[in-house]
Amino acid sequence: MDSFEYFDGRLHCEEVALSDLARDYGTPLYVYSRDAIERAYLSYAQALEHTNALVCYAVKANSNLAVLNILARLGAGFDIVSLGELERVLQAGGKPEKIVFSGVGKQAHEIQRALEVGIFCFNIESDAELDRVNQVAKDMGKVARISFRVNPDVDAGTHPYISTGLKENKFGIDIDHARQVYRRAAALDAVEVVGMDCHIGSQLTDMDPFLDAMDRLLALIDELNEDGIRIHHLDLGGGLGVCYTDETPPTPSEYISKVLERLGDRPIQLIFEPGRSIVANAGVLLTRVEFLKQNGEKNFAIIDAAMNDLIRPALYSAYQEIIPVTMSEASSDTAKSWDLVGPVCETSDFLGKNRSLNLEAGDVLAVCSAGAYGFVMASNYNTRGRPAEVMVDDDQVFLVREREQVADLFKGESILPVDR
Ligand SMILES: Cc1ncc(COP(=O)(O)O)c(C=O)c1O
Ligand SMILES: N[C@@H](CCCC[NH3+])C(=O)O
């Protein structure tokens, strides 16, 4: 995480000390580095420089408008899964003709809006969805560009909750059924078959499952060619992992060079949908220690961030490094083992367990690698307001989302009339 480094004992994001941000904006607080986001995106873009490939950032990973705008300025495309994400991308300056629309349950009004603005392609995930897209397009007098998300039945070797390319997962169309669906689509009036798509899971640290999936899709593309169906683009989805602790995933350039080698001289445009690998290590979550307490043998640090702010540890037992924003003067010999737990009334409300730290009440800690699937998965559970978000750019700080206030938390709710 070289955009987050200690200088003079204080952890910085670019040129700004995180302890200053905690003081000025309060905690819990998400902090992002513009430089880290740009470098991560450019590692894809540069590896694809001499190709016509499109990098469609997966908006779900971090959909803050400032993040999307930074990527749009670099020429990124976007992978969306809802009308909300579509409107965010447009609001942030993303180009409709670089948008792919994924997701298993697109609704008619979402399809309609996407057709209205002219997105690049719908990644269709079922027979029934094909009919819906065809019908909506027909009613509008338009033709929808489509690809099918093929489920290649490969094991991504990741956490079972974030594995998506196995037959037993809800995603995509069974590869054994795909040729038939493509043929049916080719005969419909209001869709144009242009591509093929897959996304086999997230936080992959090994290249083989990606390449296995790609081989299976290339074989299917060849079969479709025999049927007279030409595939113009191949979307390999996202999924490249990042280092949370000691993982060593392939870099985007290692991954892309293998993919390009596999593609050979086929005249097919490549699309990638990276999310986590663009933003995870571009963000931290700052939290303050409220109290220290001991129950039996266990040392607990009660912090002001909770599972509602960052759910990954509770949901997947995910490990994220937790480090002090100010290096302790105390020697590491005096460190104790702590469970870092939030104020929410759930036993699974922890951000880290058995972490060796020198702690005092009032200390500010940074939960690392929190730029992806952090704020976007935050909730208001226990009627807690979601954190603020700031973007650091060199020595400048921009508040890119205000902290939710108590009044925001029951906005739109009402009670029954008094006579009931
Ligand atoms: C269809 C699709 N594309 C892209 C992504 C982004 O994946 P990641 O954040 O692992 O790169 C996801 C999420 O896993 C997804 O479901
Ligand atoms: N939300 C997950 C990843 C799922 C990716 C979405 N398809 C995480 O936090 O790791």
UniProtKB/TrEMBL annotation:
Residues 30-371 form the Orn/DAP/Arg decarboxylase 2 C-terminal domain. Pathway: Amino-acid biosynthesis; L-lysine biosynthesis via DAP pathway; L-lysine from DL-2,6-diaminopimelate: step 1/1. Coiled coil: none annotated. It comes from the Bacteria. GO terms for biological process: lysine biosynthetic process via diaminopimelate. It catalyses: meso-2,6-diaminopimelate + H(+) = L-lysine + CO2. Pyridoxal 5'-phosphate binds at residues 239, 273-276, 373. GO terms for molecular function: diaminopimelate decarboxylase activity; pyridoxal phosphate binding. The keyword Lyase applies. Gene3D superfamilies: Alanine racemase (3.20.20.10), Lyase, Ornithine Decarboxylase, Chain A, domain 1 (2.40.37.10). PROSITE patterns: ODR_DC_2_1, ODR_DC_2_2. The modification N6-(pyridoxal phosphate)lysine is found at residue 60. Homodimer. This is Diaminopimelate decarboxylase. It comes from Nitrincola nitratireducens. The lineage of its organism: Bacteria, Pseudomonadati, Pseudomonadota, Gammaproteobacteria, Oceanospirillales. The gene is lysA.
